[in-house]
Specification:
The structure is a homodimer of 361-residue chains.
Chain A: H1 25-37, H2 47-59, E1 69-76, H3 92-102, H4 106-114, E2 116-124, E3 135-137, H5 155-174, E4 179-185, H6 190-201, H7 205-208, H8 217-234, H9 241-248, H10 251-265, E5 270-272, H11 275-287, E6 295-299, H12 304-313, E7 317-319, H13 329-347, H14 351-354
Parallel strand pairs in A: 1-2, 1-4, 2-3, 4-5, 5-6, 6-7
């Protein structure tokens, strides 16, 4: 792997990370050949086969494996929460971070089941948090500004938050991480995710905005109206993803942009969760399209904007279980399918090894 | 659990198994209440929540768990394979059974990943098979007759094959099995599955028939024509599932009918795989509709008839990964989601325990 950390990335992002190379064609060819020799009708493992080939390309190994899995959860607060866009009070962001640290949240349960580590990063929580071995203290600000009234972040803040993500993934990679799931916590953050999605794709805010944690019809209309007003106020250009992120994004979303870029640069598969995480991956891919083949769609969220992001990223989600929790739950749940794809490729017998007759017609 | 093995089941099936009780409403109410107290927006875990409630009902435990998982693979040959309905030669049935015993097939890899046991049952393979600790030798016949020309089984054979399934699940239950996945192996067996599906649902054979392991267009048309001719010859009544099974089914399908009935009678969740296994579950549900709430849809197969079965059983599949392998692969892969559903229900903290604020609007 190139260690050229000095290359300036495309799109003028004022931050540095190793160049993101195309995924490895030769590893994919070898993996595809092996799939066709395994004891099953060609293609009969469906998405597991195509996923195994993608994993070979990402890792540059014809027989990839992922013993060390991890989820990185970026947490941040949102000024826009004061506008009543969420069904839960903003206090829940730090409370849920504590719940993550205590092991009581859904993502903890699913990570234990998957044998995955959890790294929680305070990149912008509006509270002081206790020292804890699983918590990375990297607070850039006590939450964003209300994007309905002013830019959510300053240029210095958005750059610092992306840098937090780049630093965290670099440290996890150095500790031996083989694959990363993206997770997030931030009361109000379906609002910036919807704003980002509408700004990047040019699609109507009303079609990109959902109920988040469960707002009623009135709140949903209020949320849509507010995002529309914000997009008008900020005069965003779809070709400037960093500016979109700065003005209508969030600190945890910016952190995840850094994680995504840094993971792809190190040939790690990036498993996306739902709407918020995918909005971060979308920004990363708009900054540097080379990131796209490193992305794996963990699941399809109930949030309506999620499908628009997945379509733009050309990513098919693995799971479709009507999840709408975030935290990284859908991504961590999908680790199982990544593991199944790699294991079937690696461990199944070939027709020759098992002395099984091949297709005759 | 009732030990009344003498009750004669409904629909005149001349075999005995314990009565299948309705699933437990009180356990479901308690599980649903707990889901609403866990630290997440109500319903945010989507299908995992509804599945956890179903599992509580099936097991009659408000906090179900499944430490001992297993897949039962019934293997049998098909006289109709001589008519060229499969892309693979019939020799592949015993060859793949050996592959299962050697641990080289996809279902072995996925069962190892899931921590599930594999029980392989020779209920009708057209070859002598070696003694092996994982193989149950219970051959009823050396394959079925060609259903295009005569009834696939005699009355004695179909009853014996169902009894094999009842006996196998009883033995596995006694060894401590908590949940069962259904698997199968039998070259040519999408043909009986399509015939069963068309006969039970009354839908056109052409819409219920797919390419199985991968036949070309000509073979597919031949397969459809042959099933249509067989259904006409046998004059099946949709209200007589045992007669449908006998005349156009298969020995491994009959075995799986027995496993399904016996598992439901012991309050074990039954995780279905693809088309063939689901055709067996369909026959079981037509014989005894009380089996239906015990069924869990592992995945949606590529085979077109599978959706018709799932719709009739009112079962939503958990995974949709374009699998078309059988063996039990999709069911074993879905064990992970069953486990995730049970674990999140059992292990997540409540709002009160974690001191997280609830929904405010």
């Amino acid at each position: 792997m190139s260690k050229d950390f000095d290359q300036v990335p495309p799109n003028g992002l004022p931050l540095k990370y190793p160049p993101i190379l195309p995924i490895d064609e030769q590893a994919m060819i070898t993996a595809r050949q092996r799939q066709n020799e395994l004891t099953k009708p060609a293609g009969a493992l469906g998405r597991l086969e195509s996923l195994s080939i993608q994993l070979a390309g990402i890792t540059r190994q014809a027989r990839p494996s992922f013993p060390r899995k991890g989820v990185i959860i970026m947490a941040g607060d949102h000024g826009v929460a004061e506008a009543g866009v969420s069904a839960f009070p903003a206090d829940v962001t730090p409370q849920m971070v504590i719940n993550f640290l205590d092991g009581g949240a859904a993502v903890n349960v699913l990570a234990r089941q998957a044998g995955a580590t959890i790294t929680i990063v305070d990149v912008g929580v509006n509270a002081e948090l206790p020292t804890h071995p699983q918590l990375v203290q990297a607070k850039v600000a006590y939450g964003t500004q209300n994007l309905a009234k002013k830019p959510a972040m300053t240029q210095a803040e958005v750059e610092a938050a992306i840098q937090v993500g780049l630093d965290v993934i670099a440290a996890e990679y150095d500790r031996g991480l083989d694959i990363v799931a993206l997770g997030e916590m931030g009361i109000g953050n379906t609002t910036p995710a919807a704003a980002i999605t509408a700004a990047v794709t040019g699609r109507p805010v009303s079609e990109m905005t959902g109920r988040g944690t469960g707002v009623d019809d009135d709140r949903l209309q209020h949320k849509i109206k507010m995002i529309e007003t914000a997009l008008e106020r900020h005069q965003l250009e779809s070709t400037n993803p960093l500016e979109i992120l700065r003005k209508v994004g969030g600190l945890e979303i910016a952190g995840l942009v850094g994680v995504t870029l840094g993971a792809a640069a190190r040939h790690l598969p990036v498993v996306m969760d739902g709407f918020i995480v995918s909005a971060a991956a979308l920004i990363a891919a708009e900054i540097d399209p080379a990131v796209k083949p490193y992305l794996i769609g963990g699941h399809a969220s109930v949030e309506p904007g999620h499908q628009a992001i997945l379509a733009r990223l050309e990513v098919e989600p693995l799971l479709n279980l009507d999840l709408r929790l975030g935290e990284g739950t859908g991504a961590v749940l999908a680790f199982h399918l990544v593991e199944a794809a790699a294991r079937t490729l690696n461990e199944m017998a070939t027709f020759a090894e098992a002395a099984v007759s091949g297709k005759e017609r």
